[in-house]
Each structure stands twice: as C-alpha cells, then as structure tokens.
Amino acid sequence: MSENHYANATTHTAARAAVSRLAANDITFDETSGWRTQPTTVVFWPGPPLQAIYVGMGQSLTLHRHYATQISISLDAPLRMRTHASEPFTEQQSFVVGPDIPHQVETTGVPSFVLWSEARALADLARRLRTTSASELPALPSDLLNVLLPVLPASGGQVPDEQAGQALLSHVLTTLIGPSLPDESPDDPRIASALSLVTPQFLVEQSQPITSLATRVHLSPSRFRHLFRSEMGISVQSYLRWQRLMAAGYISARGASLTEAAHAAGFADSAHLTRVFRATFGVQPSHIFKNSHAVQVILGALC
C-alpha cells in the first residue's frame, strides 16, 4: 500500500483546513451563476488502490456496476437512483454503492460529489451499511454526512489541481474510515503476488492472462479462480477487465485517442472499450475524457 495517497490524511482538522485554504485561495465559484458556470472536475489516482473523485453537475447514467465502492453526495436536490430498470427511482441526499452492485443514477442538473475507491475498508463500510439498512443503496449515516457537507460545497464546481483534490479526498476518507487504512493486501500471498503482476503491459501481452497468473503462483487455473474470488470478492476475469478499463482511462486522460487507449490496454478497438466503459460507469468514455469544455480531468501520481 502506497503512503502517497494518504499523506494528507492525518486528522479531520488538518484535512479540512487544507480544503478550506485551497477553496479560499485557488477556487473561484460564482455564487450568482452557481455550479452551471463551472466545469466538472474528475481527479483520478491510478493507485493502488485506485481512487477518483467527481465534483460538479450530475449526469444521467444508465444501469451499470463496477469493482470500486462508490460514495455519492448531493449538494442540492436529492439524488435519484435504483438498482433495477423496472423499479421506480428512490430519492436520497447520499448513497453508498458496494462493489458489483448494479445501480442507475439520475442526477442531471444536481451539483454532486462522487468518490470511487478500490479500498477494501470502504467496501467493508458499504457492506455494513447494506446489512443495517436492508437496502442495496444505503444512505450515509447522518453523523458522517454532517461532517462532510460543510466542506464539499467549499470546493465549488471545480478542483483546481491534484493537491486540492488530494486534500478533499483525504478529508472524505478520514471521515469515513479513519486517518489511515488497514493493510489492504489479500490474506493469501499467492493472490497478492498475482495482483502485483497485473500491469497494462501484462494485459496486452498475455493472450491467456488467467492461465498465466495461475502458473506464476503455482496453482491450477480452476483453483486460482476460486481462491481469487474468495480473497477479492470478484471473479478474476472481472478484475482483469476492470484493470484494462482503468489503464485505458489513464492513457486517454494523458492525451491518447480512445482507439490508441483501447489498443494500449488490451481492448479490440474503441467500440469495445466504449461498450465496457458504459456497462461499468453508465456513460460513454468520450463524455469524460474527450469533453474538455465540460469536464476537466486531473491525473494524480502513479504509485
């Protein structure tokens, strides 16, 4: 686990002060015009663990699911969401989505903060909230929400740089799971070793990546699949697809075309990348990575 992602997450007070200073000194926000005058900002840290924040006007997203835990908070009208296309939407000010939980979100015109994180501690939080609330999309407890809400609007509609994004991320993580994460490594060292092998280069070069990973950690493919799901809570195939998608997003955000990013991450073409991205996030990748007049993408440091 890299310490870089959490270097600012020492205490609630320090993180909140950092956000407040950055908001006061660097972030312009026209209260009269409101959020609609500000481009949405996405800050993306490749990890591990991968983390991203979204600050700005919400969107209409189709039904999707992903490996990351998601925390969504409205800064105005309630968020509308559901877990099945046939169900009516429910409305909440916040919701927590655990890994691989299908969800559809309708937040068009609603200023929102969204966090996606691979951190297992957040996945555990989502699991506990689902159990206690008997809901697939539970709301954040009011005590946590009340700590976060005074800080989030201070970010306005735009986070100016990675430093401001890191301060905001640190405050949110500190509030939700404490000033530091527990060891995120899988309990089984063979799975930990396999994860360390999964790089963009590996994903492109290996025509049979699951067999290759199983061989390298001295397991049969079937035993490796079973053990991986037991340790990670997701199939190895889904995990590899997620890693390809994250690699493509990072490469695209650095200026590559979607076709170039798709090939560099092991997708057949840009259409293949677009289908997987939409199924994972409910929106086309071009709306995020090739829409600079409306969305500012900031890259955090690689670990």
Protein topology:
Layout (H helix, E strand, L loop, with lengths): L11 H15 L13 E6 L5 E7 L2 E5 L4 E6 L4 E4 L7 E3 L1 E4 L5 E4 L4 E7 L2 H14 L8 H7 L13 H16 L11 H9 L2 H6 L3 H8 L4 H12 L3 H18 L4 H7 L5 H12 L4 H4 L5 E5 L4
Parallel strand pairs: 1-10
Antiparallel strand pairs: 1-2, 2-9, 3-8, 4-7, 4-9, 5-6, 5-8
Helix pairs in contact: 1-4, 7-8, 9-10, 9-11, 10-11
The CATH architecture designation of the largest domain is Sandwich
**CATH topology description of the largest domain:** Jelly Rolls
What's the total helix number? 12
Biggest pleated-sheet summary? 6 strands, mixed
Mean pLDDT figure? 85
Would you identify the CATH H-level superfamily of the largest domain? Answer: Jelly Rolls
Uncertain ranges: 1-35
For the secondary structure, the number of strands is 10
Strand arrangement, major sheet: 7-4-9-2-1-10
- Cα distance spanning the termini: 9 Å
Evaluate the radius of gyration. 19 Å
Percent range for β-strand residues: 15-25%
Percent helix among the residues?
A: 40-55%
